[in-house]
Amino acid sequence: MRIGILGLGRIGAFHASTLAGLDTVDSLVVTDPVAAAAASAAERLGAIAVDSPEVLLASGVDGVVIAAATDAHPALIVAAVRAGVPVFCEKPVARTVEESLAVLRAVEDSGVEVQIGYNRRFDAGCVAARKAVVSGELGPLHTVRSTTLDPAPPPAAYIAASGGIFRDCAVHDFDIVRWVTGREVTEVYATGGNRGAEYIAAAGDVDTASALLTLDDGTLAVVSNTRHNARGHDVRLELHGMKDSIAVGLEDRLPLRSVEPGATFPAGTPHTFFLDRFADAYRAELRAFTEVVAGRSTSPCTVADAVEASWIAEACTLSLAEHRPVRLEDVRKG
């Protein structure tokens, strides 16, 4: 099959290399607003570089991967769907939940598959955790903990355009909590603070946040995030049930240091970068997309799924601002 790639920044270039290594992908067509980036990728991977998304969509591609800037996502998704081309798009669908809803309305009855890039759904540990929940081996869940701790904050320009820590960072936790548990969030209570990087506070955001989510079966989920975790990139998930408890990310490269006498775990070099922590998940995600393109499966993470995670982020953002619990149904009503 022939796959098009729209956007060749850090994640786009990584996706291009991954796709070039898949047996099912015969050729790549690439484009980027920076022509030199497209030319470089074409030379490195033996791809065809074109001048614009319009030319790419008209070039006979079987599927497209959108790794462009967030503001470009809605128009590119809709253009590909109108061309009848299956889409993989990095999260988020759009800058705001309102724009995401517009995309959902534009594509939901099209018959064209759209997969949104929530890569944790393809992490081996998260997959195993979901199987444990579905099989019932944990018993009814009572507590879930999801953690995303970044080693250092992104640049000020990124923060200013990010929409805030819940929309930009915690949204990964919101999606994986929904996916692993199979439950919906009904209410949130969020709080946050600033312990460094003054430009984050200046942008009206927090650098450290926590959210308590109540799921529709009464399970409680605790989501923790920070931009300042000096030991490394720490992403974990815990599920505690009436029969058993399990953890994702509890391995030798966990960026945590034990002070228990004689403890030697974790002994590995801590993860420091998200592409390091989730390299295998990103590859599995794109392999899954090629199955979607081939018509052998449906989207494993739809626009509707992404919108649900965005609603939770909206509720948490409002809760943080107003210092109160927020019900999801109230946010949806506007």
From TrEMBL:
Keyword line = Oxidoreductase
Task: List the InterPro entries hit by this protein, alphabetically.
Answer: Gfo/Idh/MocA-like_OxRdtase_N (IPR000683), GFO_IDH_MocA-like_dom (IPR055170), NAD(P)-bd_dom_sf (IPR036291)
Give residue ranges for domain Gfo/Idh/MocA-like oxidoreductase N-terminal: 1-118
Coiled-coil ranges from the UniProt annotation: none
Q: Which residues form the GFO/IDH/MocA-like oxidoreductase domain?
A: 128-246
Protein origin, superkingdom: Bacteria
Q: Which SUPFAM superfamilies match?
A: Glyceraldehyde-3-phosphate dehydrogenase-like, C-terminal domain, NAD(P)-binding Rossmann-fold domains
What the record says about family reads:
Belongs to the Gfo/Idh/MocA family.
Name of the protein this chain belongs to: Gfo/Idh/MocA family oxidoreductase
| Organism (species) | Streptomyces sp. R21
Which terms does the record give in the GO molecular function aspect?
Answer: nucleotide binding; oxidoreductase activity
